[in-house]
Amino acid sequence: MKTTLTALLAIALLVGFAPTKRIGDFKNSQDIGNPKLAGSSQYDKKAKAYTLTGSGYNIWFKRDEFQYLFKTMKDDFTATADFEFVGAGTDPHRKVGWMVRESMDDDASHLSAVLHGDGLTVLQWRVAKGDAMRDPEDEIFFPEKNVQTVQLERKGTTYTMRAAKKGEPLQLVGSHGMANLADNVTVGLFICSHNPAKIESATVSNVKIDR
Question: For each of the chain's 211 residues, which pLDDT tens digit applies?
Fold first, then answer.
């Protein structure tokens, strides 16, 4: 009996400490804010590309709903990737891009480098947990539309976004300081349909995170 209990305990410990299944270079994925329709993230090793699928009412106001593919990082970094929506889409404000977030809470402080379905390119943020995101105080717009490459860089508590159309050099979108996004944060890719009753997808390729 004692031997059986010991074996069961060992199995339980092994299961409890089993490593999280990675998705490409990222540690995990989950829906933030409990959207009505569940999302997912996949990695194609052959194509070296990610496919993000998700719904969600928005990433704005006092709370967010979206699909998030992420890992935890502490030091400075530069994250770069090419983004492309799948299909014509339903809402012109569907969103995809890079996000840095303080927690998995739906009202967490965050900063996002965002591409919209209508081509709008913007750096946006929630200053502190529970704050309402404001227009235009909490965003920086890029004059160019329909970019492909988005880069987000962190140096200390300053975040800088750059963007480029296909085949063109990166251009500065803007920089913003975020004291709430210091030390350990989650960094990753996201998608939001901007319509809780719809699912949207995007392909993300040439993903690179330099420390």
Answer: 444 444 444 444 443 433 457 999 999 999 999 999 999 999 999 999 999 999 999 999 999 999 999 999 999 999 999 999 999 989 999 999 999 999 999 999 999 999 999 999 999 999 999 999 999 999 999 999 999 999 999 999 999 999 999 999 999 999 999 999 988 999 999 999 999 999 999 999 999 999 9
Do the Cβ atoms of 166 and 60 come closer than 8 Å?
no
Please give the Cα distance from 191 to 38 (Å, whole number). 12
Q: pTM here?
A: 0.90
Structural domain harbouring 53: 22-210
Q: Is residue 3 part of a domain?
A: no
Per the domain annotation, does 167 fall within a domain? yes
Q: How far, CA to CA in Å, does 107 sit from each of 30, 133, 166?
A: 15, 10, 34
Domain annotation covers residue 138: yes
Domain tally for the chain? 1
- Other C-beta atoms within 10 Å of 69: how many? 29
